[in-house]
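Quick question about two entries, pasted in order.
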Amino acid sequence: MRAPDPTPPQILMPRTTPGRPRIDAKFPRDHRTLLLACAALRAAIPAAAHPQPARQEEPPPTQTNFVYDPAAEMVAGEAFGTPLGYEAHVASWQGALWSTWLEFTPGKGDRIHIGTRGGGGRPWTSRPINAPGTYAEPTLTLDARDRLWLSYEAETGGQWDVWIVRLQDGVPVGEPQRVSAGKGADINHCVAAAPSQGLWIAWQSDQQGQFDVLARRVSDEGMGEVATVSPHPRGDWQPSVVVAANGVVHVGWDAYDGESFNVHLRSLDDGRWGPVRDVARSPAFEGRVQLAADQLNRVWIAWEEGERNWGAPFRGNHKPENLSDERGPLHRFRALRLAVLDEQGTVRSGREPLPMPARAKAAAREPQSNRVQHTGVFYERARLAIDGAGRPWIAYRHYYTPWLGIEQRSHVEAGWGVYARCLSAEGWSPLYRLAPSQGDGLQRLEVTAHADGIAAVWTAGRTDRVQNQRPRGSFAAVLHGHGDAPRDVSMTESAGDPMAPAVARRPRPEPAVVGGRQYQLFYGDLHRHTDISLCLVTVDGTLDDAYRYAIEVAGLDFLGITDHARDIAQGDALGHLWWRNRKEVFRHQLGTTFFPFVAFEASRTVTADHNVISLKGDMLRPDVLPIPDLWKELDDDTLTIPHQPIRRQTWQYQDDKRRPLVEVFQGFRDVSIEDNVNQALGKGYHLGFIASSDHMSTSASYACVWSEDASREAIFRSLQARRTYGATTNIRLVVRAGDHWMGERITATTMPVLEFDARGTAPIATVELVVDGKLHQTFSPGERDVRIRERPALTGSHYIYFRLQQTDGNRAWSSPLWIDIRPAAPH
């Protein structure tokens, strides 16, 4: 039974008494930068009280690293809100632009703002409409009765839900109503107005441990039943909804079928949902669909098309030649595709109707290589709108890195170019570029029809280790179109077949019983970067990419995204970027099937790079602290893990509670550091083994842990207990001595029997028993299922572990057992 609805987020009504704005900003005692303290003060003052001066445009990018399509016109965005404003959305209402966005205040959280900009060059005015809290994706929608609605996502008591409230003159009318009706994360919502009355809302919802797409009608009479739009055995992501002039509701989304993400569409006509149709289905990544309907009842569809083998096994090994169009990291290239669902219900798509000139440049670059025809070219995150003249507009972001896949470059970044153009009867319009550029892949871009064109709003800025002067915050611009609306779309390649069946998820591994208790096996990754880290911005992908990969492709049970602390506002736990990262952790927990951790990498210490994994949301520290000093600030809810490359100083210190594990294998470097780790084990340190990805690598490094329960805390405590092993594929491995797991310390009077049980993904070629860092015994089973029972003739104190290698080259390393054999004294 569903628990009672949580109390809706508090709505603050504006004061009617005129006067100076009240300043109520509190400076947190441990806040470390004057800049953010000033930002907190600024955020507390309504925007009308401090109109922002025009921000200095960013310097031109380094052309040798990042190349951008030339635009016919550069359009400067107008700043609104404060530099800590983000996730803006826009609507055109009563001749004026209206926007909603989040304003972040350090130490307090988000507040949703509603703002407007009238004609005649009048400045933006805005007000906060709720108390500080945890919010996402505020959205404005105009209904058929010319009324404005605000929808948003909010976290209350660990639960993310979708909420909606009607506005009057920018002020909420009554209390917000909860749209989502289930238990679990409800995120990535979208809204469309019906031509008669009411709104349709679709969102991505945790349904018993996987994401599905749900939809619901909202009107003055109340809310309709929640419909499951995507009857799919795998995860469904990021829906888009539109209602055509004839009243037909269309919902698009993308879903993983066991090989790739594909774009699907389903329509509600006359109260009945039709079949799910494939809009785009191939071995390539196809996702992040957007819909828009014109007055001819045509539905325009845009989506991203990317790489084949997205998320498939790949190891970076620092070599550019390892990366290609066919194989590589999550973010190698992207193109934008367009299709039209006509009034007869036929989906028609063109081969390449949107001009993407960088693709031709990439194919012709020197040295010529068939490996990288498209690698390094990015057109993505499309947004669609139909203007008042019936012209479809597409806005997107773009850059081109001609060196990617040919030579190795790191720590370079110049921002995402934001572009837009429209399609008229004469063809595509000249290209507009909007300034300033965006700074990371999760920054929002939205468009809406406005006058004879569109209005766009977007988030800009970046706060990594480079102290750049690029503008930050929310920006808006208006673009004007020319020409008649297109009538004959001239798209003839047919698509839209019924949805094909998906491959079932991998079954859960067989549990293990040790010491009379049953344990489940969980696979995870505790060292993964995104484009938040400056190191390899172009290839690591976004936070969204990381969660899609982990949940759907790799089938992970837990994940720690460990972007560098120095790239997260220099390790500021009260900073804006850390706040954004933390929110995504809890937005992506899936019931009892996927548990993301709060995590970061401390990477500038004198005692080696360490990943910090925590149960606590405020655990971020500057990475200038030596690791022993960092350990002093930790409690039992946080642990650290050293990773490659291990430095000379790494093993000068040890705290078995604060550093219980080591990354014995890393997919990015494709190297085991077993010999180095044995130096630490030889000093008496107690370190369990895991494997991790780091940058670029996918489906090639697993932190494997045996835990009694499926929960974030239970998995964390099992990591602390070193009940772990590292593997390069989904190998099942159990190593124990009697009632003791690998990772434990044992005192015995005689050497116990070592029990080794493994199930490989291919035949296991060799199993090696290692004692005190030296090879003790080798077995050659040649089978997938291997069972070994061995009692080495040992006395005294030893550490012992097993390692195995399959015939396909995949490997695994058990955590050590520390055995102290003390013969009983004679009577």
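Here is the second entry:
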Amino acid sequence: MSDDLVFDYRYGFKVPENYVFKSRKGLDKKLVAEISYIKKEPKWMTQFRLNAYDVFVKKQMPNWGADLTAINFDDIYYYIKPTDNTVSSWEDLPKEIKETYDRIGVPEAEKNFLAGVSAQYESEVVYKSIQKELDKIGVVFLDMDSGLREHPEIVRKYFGKLVPPADNKFAALNSAVWSGGSFLYVPKGVKVTLPLQAYFRINAERFGQFERTLIIAEEGSYVHYIEGCLLAGEKIITDQGIKNIEAIKPKDFVFTHQGRYEKVKAVMIRKYQGEIYKITPLSALNSITLTKEHPVLAIKREKVLTKRKPRNSWLPEVNTKRLIQEKPEFIPVSELKKGDFVIFPKIKDDSKKINFEFSDEEMELIGFYLAEGSAYYHKQLNQYVVTFSFSSKEKENIKKVIDLIEKIINKKANLQIIKEKNEARIQVYSKTLYDLLVENCYRHSDEKKLSELVLNQKKEKLEKLFWAYFKGDGNLSIKKNSSGSKSYLYRLSTASSILAYQIQMILNNLGIFASLRLRKGGEDKILDRNIKRKDQYIISFTKPKKWSEIRETEDYFIVPIKKIEKEFYQGEVFNLEVKNDNSYLAKGIALHNCTAPIYTTSSLHSAVVEIFVKKGARVRYTTVQNWSHNVYNLVTKRAKVEEEGVMEWIDCNIGSYVTMKYPSCVLTGRGARGEVLSIAYAAKNQHQDAGAKMLHLAPETSSRIISKSISRDGGRTSYRGLVYVAPNAKNSKVYVSCDAMLIDERSRSDTYPTMKIKNRQVEVQHEATVEKIGEEKLFYLQSRGIKKAEAEGLLVNGFIEPVTKEIPLEYTVELNRLINLEMEGSVG
């Protein structure tokens, strides 16, 4: 049996609280009884809760491990009921809950991947879906409340038998106020080949979540249980130009909907499977692709309509004055329609960080170079060569470029006329000019892009560059309207997609909205010159008037959506958490980030997991925990393993403020085997106190504990373990390995191993190491051009590899990314 349970707390956002019932703060016997009454539980469960409450009151707080003195049990809401009852249809859920689980992909996961989904929101499991295959083979997969209601005899037989209320104060608290969780029963010999998955989430501030998980895997059974926004390539506007979203790092600065640059706090990556939406505005190449829940800054057309009747197949007309006055709002992309409006914020000079100022002549020459220039190193002549190619008819441009070169480097350029090609070629040998142009524009036409220094020049400098570029590569069409007025259409082209978006940014800075489209390559003729074109990116705009469909305010352009398309996608998606403004621009369009609920007060997660592994069964329970950093994560996990059974705990702790968790195996049958593979990562203000317990109560049992911990930025990790070998457990084998890595001098790691061996015929191995990150390895990686944070991430991922190789590939990738993000200071 292979059973993967993955708790995944990556997703970050908060929706307004809207509950059917929310208890008062604090806990007493009356509230415990009230919870049981609301749930319509049998009398034995009510009494179990009340007895557990008495134990909770009497039990002292742990005086070892992490500091828990800040927990105020009187300032916690112990029970929240978000809906009247569990439903079997996704569409029957309240809107707030659907929004939450839409955002983490539960509907898509259910439709396309999962055999069953159980989703817990605050205290209650609000949605469950079990496919017919599970019913056919006799597997029971329910929320814990339904398990109690529908299978009371099984629940009563096992509930609280492995983790009784008297085990510890937090087990007693959970037993008194437990709500939700999962109940899974796999009959003898049954193989569940499809995965089961559960999602848990805290939305309310000062809330305690107390789910209860009970798994019974009968003899020889098998089950896979998992507990658990932009696509790569989308272009984000940063203070260093345009970057693909997957290249954004924490501490980068991105442009926000408020018209300024703000720091990226976190980069979030997750696997996604389901519908994605492609929005195409008036400018076709500004289309963006998003997961369905991602918020876009927009205005709904229906809010700003005129009173005129629609004409033929036209969209209803809008009132321009009302449109300009309407305040944009962030709207999930799935709620937008063709004809709605997206917002392109304007980029202004006061948002820029200008560290260096180019001369007017340099900016103009850069513009001409973008259009007609190239540069290379001539090996035979040992010379740096800069060349400009024009049509021989472009006399004004030819003279201008020669004059600019002379002013910048005080050197006359060579002019060569090639009659058969109608070409005028300007050439100059100059390393100074080569460096200026290549460092700020690159060399080849399809690679050209502007440097950060150029993009951060003031408006009047960028205007010099743009009009020089237009003279070299642009054309102007003038049309006379029936009214006698003229319309001016400006167009220019480039083989570089990045440069096209950068020119659009520059025009935005100049107060001009430009559209982008793609023209496929092929044979062409320009001013009597035959050329073979690469794919061309066409930039076009009208002046002095804007496109008739574009409106603008002082701060942004309002651009209509021309098309919205849906398709299925499976793969990684990306999101950013941005300081203050919580937004960023993708291809110029303002998007909100989807961020974790961050509170000034703490939340409490106190769960209990009980697993019964019968003869010859195998269970694997994998946790990838990334709780928000305001959560006390205090969990009791225990498994009873019978003859020849196998229990594997894979426990990865990245998030939370404090974690205290020690997965346990009670090996009661001959040949039973238990494993705990553990990773703990603690950054600033975090204490991960984690470990394992192995109790050998039968002969020929074996256990393996491998613990890896990483501490950085003042964080603290602790390994706390117990191995007990009973007098009758002869021929048993024990292996314990605890390795800690300290990233800096401020961080801390502790090891508290306890071994109680009562039989001499036992093989015991114990290893423990503490190391600092290898300076020589770090130096080697940095000497190869790898940034320090990335190099540290590589070394940390190598350090934890003995554990990650035991995890399914998709979770290894995710865990490595989480570690890398933490090394960049980006998660939490």
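Reply: The chain has a mean pLDDT of 81. The two ends are 35 Å apart (CA to CA). Hope that helps.
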